[in-house]
Amino acid sequence: MNFDWNYALEILPRLLDGLLTALIATVVGYVVALVLGLVFALARRSHQRWISMPVGFLVEFIRGTPLLIQLFFLFFVLPQLGLALSPLAAGIIGLGLHYATYTSEVYRAGIEGVPPGQWDAAVALHLPRRRVWTSVILPQAVPRSIPALTNYSIALFKDVPQLVAITVAEPFTVGREIIADTFRPFEPITMAGLLYLAVALVLSYVGRIVERRFNGVTA
User: Fold this and answer.
1) Is a pLDDT exceeding 60 seen at residue 218?
2) How would DSSP label each residue in 148-204?
3) Contact call for residues 21 and 87 (beta carbons, < 8 A)
């Protein structure tokens, strides 16, 4: 079987439309994961057990169950409870929640990596607790977390094809639709894979630049 570049270019616009959807799901889902992950990490460090314990259970529950099951729950079960989500909204929420549990562990490691002397100095200066976090701890913890956080951006993007289960039209879904219409699997699947590879390489490159910036190295 020979690869037909003319046919590949013919179907490329449809695949690019799917790629745009995948990028939206990735960017918004990743922002949710970054913000919510930090909230989870801080909540688990709370001295109030009624906060730390439920959040800890939630994080372990989400991290311990497959993303696909979570997507099915959001898209197919929630409507039975009176909350209907569009496929893309369910996908974004699912990806964001799932990866927030992983980013929370990255933040936790970064926070625990801050030297104890920094905490002692903040206490000695009688800084308010919020000021301790915003001015002393997080500015040191977040840069330590950058390499792992950027890796999760790539992992999240590569999990976007799982949204096919809830009918989100990303490149793989579009490729399957083209195959169903034409019975030609080689070009659609290959082109979808190449699009995912290209974006993953860009994310990897951007991640290295961000890491260097946070480490004070000129890219």
Assistant:
1) no
2) HHHHHHHHHHHHGGGGGGGT---HHHHHHHHHHHH---HHHHHHHHHHHHHHHHHHH
3) no
Token pair in block for residue 115: 């030297």
Q: What is the pLDDT of residues 63-109, one digit of tens each?
A: 999 999 999 999 999 999 999 999 999 999 999 999 999 999 999 98
Contact 32, 89 (CB under 8 A): no
- Give 18's contacts (C-beta < 8 A, 6+ positions apart): 169, 170, 171, 172, 173, 174, 175, 192
Q: What is the C-alpha separation between 81 and 94, in angstroms, rounded?
A: 17
Backbone phi, psi, residue 82, to 5°: 95, 10
Full DSSP string of 76-106:
IIGGGGT----HHHHHHHHHHHHHHHHHHHH
Query: What is the model's pTM?
Result: 0.89
